[in-house]
């Protein structure tokens, strides 16, 4: 993340860092550029990203990168958001993951429509073009889900004891 934000700042472009407070202890994230939003948790980081960003791009990374990528894909599939999601497949880094997704489609664990949620390209220009062209087509069943706070409130249970 630091290399990307440094390069962006050096080219006089906007940088927005959404950083969990735990990462700010002992200067774990290093020097920051541009605007910085500190959040309490990783989940709050994802929610903030979802609200503020136009698209999500994953670069080669570890478990944290994959966790955030899968979360965003799941949220798209569940119709929580409809933003473009892409991976910059530098030197084939994501080839095995993309093959796994294709295998999951063949085995009917992922629908072909859901597989199209994740966009892949080997160059930044190609990825941006694909992300801009992306139009999410929600699943007819999942599109009926309502994610507003009022719709997620559970009905109260009647716990009255009748003798």
Structural class: alpha/beta
Count every helix, treating DSSP H or I runs of 4 or more residues as helices. Answer: 7
- Averaged pLDDT: 85
The rounded distance between the terminal residues' Cα atoms is 63 Å
Helix percent band: 25-40%
Query: What's the Cα radius of gyration?
Result: 19 Å
How many distinct beta strands?
A: 5
- Unreliable spans are none
Strand content: 5-15%
Q: What strand order characterises the main sheet?
A: 3-4-5
Largest sheet: 3 strands, parallel
- C-alpha geometry: globular
So what's the oligomer here? single chain
Order of helices and strands: HEHEHEHEHHEH
Which key terms come to mind for this protein?
40% helix; alpha/beta; 163 residues; two-stranded parallel sheet; 14% strand; three-stranded parallel sheet; single chain
């Amino acid at each position: 993340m630091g290399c990307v934000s440094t390069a962006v700042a050096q080219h006089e472009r906007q940088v927005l860092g959404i950083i969990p407070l735990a990462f700010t202890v002992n200067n774990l994230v290093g020097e920051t550029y541009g605007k910085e939003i500190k959040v309490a948790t990783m989940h709050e980081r994802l929610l903030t990203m979802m609200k503020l960003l136009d698209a999500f791009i994953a670069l080669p990374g570890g478990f944290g990168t994959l966790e955030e990528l899968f979360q965003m894909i799941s949220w798209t599939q569940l119709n929580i958001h409809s933003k473009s999601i892409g991976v910059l497949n530098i030197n084939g880094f994501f080839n095995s993951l993309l093959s796994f997704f294709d295998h999951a489609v063949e085995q009917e664990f992922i629908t072909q429509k859901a597989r199209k949620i994740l966009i892949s390209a080997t160059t930044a220009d190609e990825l941006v073009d694909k992300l801009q062209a992306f139009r999410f087509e929600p699943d007819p069943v999942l599109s009926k889900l309502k994610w507003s706070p009022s719709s997620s409130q559970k009905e109260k249970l009647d716990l009255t004891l009748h003798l």
